[in-house]
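Let us begin with a simple case.
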Amino acid sequence: MKILLLGDSLFARYEGLEEPHINFSLKKILSGVKIQNLAQSGDNSFDLLEKLQKKQISGANLVFVWIGANDLATHKQVFLGEFQDNLRNIAKLLLKQYNSSQIIFLGPAPVDESKQVTRTNRLVNYYSEIIEKVAKEFSFDFISMQEVFRQSSYPVEQILKGLQDDGLHFGSLGYEVLAKALTKKIKTKF
């Protein structure tokens, strides 16, 4: 099985490992999984849209799209209407290579507001609602990372603690929680 990961630093971060931490965490759970991780730190929905316009990305069984953490950041915010338009255009481009049952959108994860100065959970809610709306519009699956983190047996603040410890970028515990959520979705598909 091959999965494609598209998004920002939350998919791209190594957190001290030799590969993106999410790749490592998924391989621990799913033996034999092949992962193409094209996530790029700092990317927002405009960046992902541009990437998909320039490069055809095919051959995966499932595509996970996790974008929004940079779109909602107040110092470089992409307004909700533009964000929604970008997501729709991203969806249309992906549908040229994949069918709707192969595409999964993720909503932004919660942030620790005591450490995060440019993102709030209120904004996370707004942007997550837009992602869920577009996912439903295109018959894509949607994973609410807010729910995933909140339903974990660990406190959200503990999940959000990583090397950077900025209330946004998480470490091994967060990647374990994320990998379990992705694996659960993968197992419903196969």
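The second case is a distinct protein. As before, the sequence precedes its structure tokens.
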Amino acid sequence: MGEGLRPEVERGSVRRITEVGEEILRRRCAPVTDAQFGTADLARLIDDMFATNHVAHGAGLAANQVDVDLRLFVWDMEDDWGVRHVGHIANPVLDEEPLAGRRLVEESEGCLSVPGPFKSLARADHAVVRGRDKDGRELVVEGRGYFARCLQHETDHLHGRLYLDRLGKRERRDALREMTELRDGVLARRAATAERIGK
């Protein structure tokens, strides 16, 4: 096993990441039910998602990106100020801030399910999501800057939306073309990382 890995990554198994064009990425995910909270299956899925995200060098990962139809995502990333954020949330609801008070920031954004390209995209620089943790306890997560972008991006996934859907037609076409060119290299790097940490 690799050194310095988070316990979730140590425990988890790497799963295949779904890619743009697969149907599961296009539908609204099913909520995590009361019967699923606190179960070993849900805990294992979260560990697997952390391991998969780590190997893919991601900021966050939604359950439908590992082919599971559940309203759940994980994150492990540094924000603009170098603060590391690690966590998971089930059944997240994004607080919609009034348009008048919302500050949009345009920055580069990519997606593990669109391996390779990054495109400039405007998102709110502050986000709050409310949901539950794996044991069913209520959770409120607040993010600014890049962490806010991550929370919005992952919540989009659970509604069947990709960041590509927020781009203009030309940028979307360019991103898909770049993905065709870059995909094999990205997947090779993920496989090399998995091998290096014994996954």
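The CA atoms of residues 142 and 186 lie 30 Å apart. DSSP finds four helices and seven strands in the chain.
Keep these points in mind for the review questions at the end of the chapter.
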